[in-house]
Write a structure and sequence with these properties.
By secondary structure, this protein is an all-alpha fold. The protein is built from six helices and no strands. Helix content is 76%, strand content 0%. The longest helix has 19 residues, at 100-118. The radius of gyration is 14 Å and the shape is globular. It comes from Lactobacillus amylolyticus DSM 11664. This is Carboxymuconolactone decarboxylase family protein.
Length: 119
């Protein structure tokens, strides 16, 4: 509890890049995201980064309307080694739960993330 903001920021920077430094200082909701989401949950030892990011990707894909966050987490996944092919298989496996519109959106975002990272 004493260092969750610090650990949350370290985790965000590790996954999303150095541009996340100071993210918690933007406003209250950004502080909560760093402190709670990344400081409380992402620092737990039960899942590795690859599994946690893949699960986060699935949550976001199922929500719809969160394309900026899905793009950021797609890039984080690819950066960790959960590549375009892997993420596409995840979407296809979950299509019965996501539905075609959200699956198509997720695949579009995966392709956009892959292009941004791998050219």
């Amino acid at each position: 509890m004493k260092n969750r903001l610090e650990k949350g920021e370290e985790t965000q920077i590790r996954l999303f890049g150095s541009q996340m430094k100071g993210f918690s200082k933007i406003d209250t909701i950004h502080k909560w995201l760093v402190d709670n989401c990344f400081g409380d949950y992402y620092t737990r030892k039960s899942l590795n980064d690859n599994d946690r990011e893949m699960i986060t990707f699935c949550y976001l894909a199922s929500q719809g309307g969160v394309e900026p966050q899905l793009l950021a987490d797609s890039k984080a996944n690819i950066g960790l080694g959960n590549d375009k092919e892997f993420l596409t298989k995840v979407v296809l496996q979950n299509e019965p739960f996501l539905g075609y519109p959200r699956s198509l959106n997720a695949i579009r975002i995966i392709n956009e993330a892959d292009k941004a990272i791998n050219g």
